[in-house]
């Protein structure tokens, strides 16, 4: 019986090892993007992180979110989080950031990025809708639904604050 347990444990560890050593969780692999749905080259898109994932170049400390296209030039975009304060306005921990070798990052994301300066998750008191502030575009974008908020982007619900008045609300969704 003990031998059977050791054999099962060994198989479990051996089967899980390729995932652990690849540097990408199964959740990250499930969110990879298809070539038709991104601004990435067709050859790179199969291995590139998809919408909802946080990424960084190996040689830089900058963190980005792969998010929806809000400006109309591609299916998805890269959003630069300019400071630790901005990052912590969206997320509770630094867990979940995918570090890509520079060459792979540059192959996957070659269209530049949109700045999330003064990033904020916000909710008006009279609605259940939650918004994200995109500083460079100077607008709030409604996050499509709770599943998008928690399961796709992994935003931290405890970071939701009140909407800042006198700011623009876009009709486009963060999805």
Question: Key features?
Answer:
175 residues; alpha/beta; 10 strands; 28% helix; globular
Commentary on this structure:
There is one protein chain. The protein has 6 helices and 10 strands, in the order αααβββαβαββββαββ. By secondary structure, the chain is α/β, with parallel strands linked by helices. The strands form 2 sheets. The chain has a 5-stranded mixed β-sheet. A hairpin with a 6-residue loop joins β6 (120-123) and β7. The relative contact order is 0.14. The model is unreliable at 1-45 (pLDDT under 50).
Secondary structure topology:
Blueprint: H1 2-22, H2 26-30, H3 42-45, E1 54-57, E2 63-68, E3 76-81, H4 84-88, E4 97-100, H5 102-108, E5 114-115, E6 120-123, E7 130-134, E8 139-143, H6 146-152, E9 160-162, E10 169-174
Parallel strand pairs: 1-4, 3-5, 6-9, 8-10
Antiparallel strand pairs: 1-2, 2-3, 6-7, 7-8
